[in-house]
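Researcher: If convenient, please comment on what follows.
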Amino acid sequence: MSQAVDLMIAGMGFVFVFLIILVFATTFMSRIINRFTAPEPATPARTPRAKPSAPASADPDTAEAIRKAIAQYRARHKK
């Protein structure tokens, strides 16, 4: 029984040491990669959506029908 406990402690110790080394290696590689790569471009701020508009070639009746259909869809599918 004592051999089983010794083997268990040795195995758990080996795994613990391996995981500690893995954490340090991953951190080290991450710092190296960040040093040699270009910084990511800044993402533009989100702007509020403009009111939907129809193309200039559409007649006013069609444009109004599109606006009403969009408003009706949004009213039914509120989150």
Q: What stands out?
A: The chain has one domain: 2-38+52-76.
